Sequence to fold (160 residues):
Amino acid sequence: MRVSVYITPKAGVLDPQGQAVLGSLHSLGYTEVADVRIGKYIVLELEGADPAQVEARVQEMCSRLLANPIIEDFRFEAGS
Amino acid sequence: MRVSVYITPKAGVLDPQGQAVLGSLHSLGYTEVADVRIGKYIVLELEGADPAQVEARVQEMCSRLLANPIIEDFRFEAGS
Fold:
């Protein structure tokens, strides 16, 4: 089973990488871009996982290791 | 208008960051995880963009700046 995890900087947290990319996009002429936020996109392949447990287990993986809940939000969806 | 961009290492390209996270997940007891691939999730906020042009412009931003087409694949979707 494949689970896609999306991790984004929380609203209000500075995103210097996003600001750098925004500056570069403007330099290249893409002035319609008003803001850029950069997060992580993690694809987990699970094997032999109990479907009833997947949501709780992935939630735990995110808060224990994949995301930093102080400065990042995360969400995930199975099967895409 | 919000555009979400998903950038992933191409199949067959080594992903050392993903391998490191896989090792950590196993150490923490999440042995059902068979593989981890780590990419980027970029959210662009566009203002005053011509809707007819958005797809071509974002395609261009991805191949010129956001992704490295030699080792990364990208896809994007508007309005999520």
In short: The CA atoms of residues 48 and 61 of chain A lie 17 Å apart. Residues 2-78 of chain A form a domain with the Mth169; Chain: A , fold (CATH 3.30.1280.10). The radius of gyration of chain A is 16 Å. DSSP finds two helices and three strands in chain A.
